[in-house]
Amino acid sequence: MAEETASILQSPATAATDRYGKIYSKQILKGVTLKDVYKFNAQWTTAIGPAYANIVEQSSNFIKCKPPSGREFSYALCYYSGPAQPTGSNPDNPPLPCTLSKDGKVANCTCYAISNKGAGAKTPYLVDINAISNQFIYQETTASCGRDGADCTDTSSEPPTCEAINTNLLVPGADLVSVFSPLYANNYASQTQSTPLTSCTGLYAGCMTAPCTRTGKYDGQGNELVSCECPVYTGPYQIGQANQNCNANVGADGKTSTTGPRYIWSAAYNPGNQPLPLPDAKCTPDMAGKNGCPLYNPDKPVPANVIDPNGQLCKNVCASYQNSTPTTPGLQVGYTCDSTLCTTVGIGQNKLTYNPSVKAQASLSGQACQGVGQMTDVGQIALVESLANCSCCASQICGCDTPNDQTNQAVYRLNQEQRDQTIKPQCDINGTLCGKP
């Protein structure tokens, strides 16, 4: 059976996919030859399609990556790109068009940039192991994680694809690369459909790990927008939103544009015709959506044999919080970020009352988490949250929720700003991180 599967994976990637790989590589590398460090992955990484088809068969296919700390870093999110007009459930969403090149070989997609300056500092991003665009990094990752990624679902070591992205080496010359993040999920979720996707067949953009460049553009809410050069594939796919027209050229008025640019959806394909099967073996701290861990619950203490509040791990965590003043002297950003980030992205919120604008979410998380990626021992904080299976909770778990006066005032103000935007802060949920006027 193993030999049969191997032959299936190898046989189709000979003529058409190899030829396409050479064309795509030439376009994105602008003629630069980098044979030793980059080769476009035209392999059939699953039995039903090549890497650039962006196929996700099971939750273990998603490799979970932690953004680096101590320096600026960004990644792109193209999962909601496609038509020329805005889509999604939030009226503040910007247009994110995917324009097909004249030769039909590449889609130039406008995508969100997510930085570790704000909410992206603590929230893991996900990479589909089947869709790693650099063949060398794909081979290294499957050697470490297994072909389906199952060997990297719960590991302390950094998978090769995460290391390559975090050091900007996955696609040489790119400013950043496209991956998946749940940070914008609430802005594109359907409130009425139980299955938040649209199934289609045809040409689509497979943007996972595609190279992107900065454009200097921002949407009306202050979110940075970048341009990503995505490979294209013809086959079945799902749009990550309900009730969408498979033809991305159909406008908001229902009319199909027959002149000007041709638009296609950025999409992925799950053979089970279900939403992307995000990792679910354990919850993920600081991640929005059903796979995210809950907030700190004082009624469910973490056993001391799991996390000792007097142990060295918690001592390191508390020292990090106390000294977390990388941008504003005296302002301990670890506390302000924990008080705001997770609740702002939807964790612990009532879906019937939680309805902040995109601008408010970006503004709040930006204010609260400015410089959090430059904190020392961020990895130790992440470890506590992972062991405790909770979000924005390390200071509470370790008993070091003692911010200084300046920080208490900032937390108090941020909590009130959250309430003004229909967001319930941790103070109102679990009685922690309340701040003082």
Helix-strand makeup class: alpha+beta
Number of domains: 2
What count of helical segments does DSSP give? 12
Task: Name the beta content range.
Answer: 5-15%
Nearest-integer average pLDDT? 86
Could you give the order of strands across the largest sheet?
A: 2-4-9-8-6
Topology readout:
Layout: H1 2-10, H2 16-29, E1 62-65, E2 74-77, E3 98-100, E4 106-115, E5 125-128, H3 135-145, H4 160-166, E6 176-179, H5 185-188, E7 198-205, E8 211-218, E9 224-239, H6 312-322, H7 333-344, H8 358-369, H9 378-388, H10 394-397, H11 405-420, H12 426-430
Parallel strand pairs: 2-6
Antiparallel strand pairs: 1-5, 2-4, 3-4, 4-9, 6-8, 7-9, 8-9
Helix pairs in contact: 6-9, 7-8, 7-11
Structure write-up:
With 437 residues, the protein is of the alpha+beta class. It has two domains: 238 residues, no CATH class; 119 residues, no CATH class. It has twelve helices and nine strands. The chain has a five-stranded mixed β-barrel. It has a two-stranded antiparallel ribbon with strand order 1-5. Helix 7 packs antiparallel against helix 8. The longest helix has 16 residues. The chain starts with a helix and ends in a 7-residue tail after the last helix. The N terminus is likely disordered.
